[in-house]
């Protein structure tokens, strides 16, 4: 799926994450800011990249500001931001690429 325009999902509240997606420069560029980056940075990165892979996103700039979000929250925020970037708000593929 192509990232057509900049979009954001999530908040900066505790136990949440704010994910911003923007059109990329031919690759996936991921930036993560987190107070728990040393403990959970690898897991955060893996979760975000796995979600992007499932959505077939191969060209995007992704910024994650994590405030202690669980994996399920990170997945939901990434999915929401990608769909918002494409103005997809109806007929979402629940049970398909959205898990």
Task: Return the CATH class.
Answer: Alpha Beta
Compute the CA-based radius of gyration: 12 Å
The rough form would be described as globular
Oligomer: single chain
> How many structural domains?
1
The H/E string reads: EEEHEH
The secondary structure category is: alpha+beta
Structure in words:
By secondary structure, this protein is an alpha+beta fold. The chain has a single domain (7-85), classed as Ribosomal Protein S5, domain 2 (2-Layer Sandwich), CATH 3.30.230. The protein has 2 helices and 4 strands; from the N terminus they run βββαβα. The chain is globular. The two termini are 16 Å apart. The relative contact order is 0.28.
Short description:
The protein has 99 residues and is α+β, with helices and mostly antiparallel strands.
Write the layout of secondary structure elements.
Elements: E1 7-9, E2 17-23, E3 28-34, H1 37-54, E4 60-66, H2 71-85
Parallel strand pairs: 3-4
Antiparallel strand pairs: 1-2, 2-4
Helix pairs in contact: 1-2
Features:
99 residues; alpha+beta; Ribosomal Protein S5, domain 2; four-stranded mixed β-sheet; 24% strand
């Amino acid at each position: 799926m192509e990232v057509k325009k900049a979009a954001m999902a999530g908040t900066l509240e505790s136990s949440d994450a704010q994910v911003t997606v923007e059109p990329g420069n031919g690759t996936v560029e991921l930036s993560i800011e987190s107070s728990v980056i040393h403990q959970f940075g690898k897991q955060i990165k893996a979760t975000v990249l796995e979600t992007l892979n499932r959505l077939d996103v191969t060209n995007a700039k992704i910024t994650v500001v994590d405030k202690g979000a669980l994996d399920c929250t990170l997945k939901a925020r990434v999915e929401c931001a990608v769909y918002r970037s494409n103005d997809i708000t109806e007929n979402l593929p629940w049970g398909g690429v959205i898990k």
